[in-house]
Amino acid sequence: MHDGEESTVEEGVVVRKRRKGIYILPNLFTLAALFGGFYAIVMAMNGRFDMAAIGVFCAMVLDSLDGRVARMTNTQSAFGEQMDSLSDMVSFGAAPALIAYVWALSGLGRWGWIAAFVYCACAALRLARFNVNTGVVDKRYFQGLPSPAAAALVAGFIWLMTELGVQRGQDHWLTWTQVTWIMFGFTLYAGLTMVTNVPFYSFKDVQMKKSVPFAVIVLIALGIAVINIHPPIVLFGVFVLYGLSGYVVYAWRKSRGQHTSVISTSTDEPDERGLHK
Questions:
Q1: Distances from the Cα of 181 to the Cα of 14, 104, 106, 147, angstroms
Q2: What is the per-residue pLDDT across 186-219, written as a single tens digit (0 to 9) for each?
């Protein structure tokens, strides 16, 4: 008998059943994203806040790939979904909160750790809500700011300040007290926006397998070139705009009398009651 197989006898016929296993490819990306979050925490503990921020951004890239790889290779699984959520909690929940606290928020005393905890708790709540609302949410939008984008706001600000020469406890073109309170504001904004019902475009309706005009490839190349001019400034600016875009969409829908919630309006889901706002 081969390894990984077991056999049973049913009416004289030997039936071999494969043991359940775990798909390697998508989970490798998930584990790599988890390592990015862990690496970010270790770098923050060692005072390398620029590398800590880079670790969070690398985790974002890897996290965006694992789901697409699973769908493209038809290797989706319940295990992979749970693994992805746990990885996100570390990389985009705990890691940014701890990095922000070690870098600046610790100087605010109890207000600092409260802000860090609020961010971490909101990340957990947002991920839990995402898991239970998967079947009723409009796939084109996220309900609240996605946790990777929230992490990018927090880690991106730290990366930008570090690249501009702002050091802990030292006054530059901004005083350290001002930097600390700005960090406090970004942490709370990112955390609380994750648990709102504000719609943020998900880009999930972008089909990678479809052909696109040549101009699209040129624009992608230009985008990569712009990012390479100064990654901290460009990436932080992009995620600040994205972090505000949901409120713009919300206000625009509200002004036109449209539904502002991304929960679908079908009558097939009785648990949807009370979710529309």
A1: 70, 9, 11, 22
A2: 999 999 999 998 889 887 766 666 666 777 788 8
Q: Determine if residue 109 is left, alpha or beta; phi over 0 gives left, psi from -120 to 50 gives alpha, anything else beta.
A: left
Q: Give dist(CA 126, CA 130) in Å, integer.
A: 6
* pLDDT at residue 81, as a whole number: 84
More confident residue, 120 or 23: 120
Neighbours of 124 (CB within 10 A): 17
Query: Any idea where the domains of the chain sit in the sequence?
Result: 24-262
pLDDT at 125 exceeding the cut of 70? yes
Residue with tokens 């989970």: 27
Tally Cβ neighbours within 10 Å of residue 222.
Answer: 10
Would you say 137 and 263 are in contact if contact means Cβ atoms under 8 Å apart? Answer: yes
CA distance 32 to 76: 17
- Name the class of domain 24-262: mainly alpha
Q: At what angle do helices 78-88 and 49-72 cross, to 10 degrees?
A: 170
What's phi and psi for 207, nearest 5 deg?
-90, 115
Give the whole-angstrom CA distance, residue 246 versus residue 237: 15
Q: How confident is the prediction for the chain on average, in pLDDT?
A: 82
Q: Which residue has the higher pLDDT, 211 or 5?
A: 211
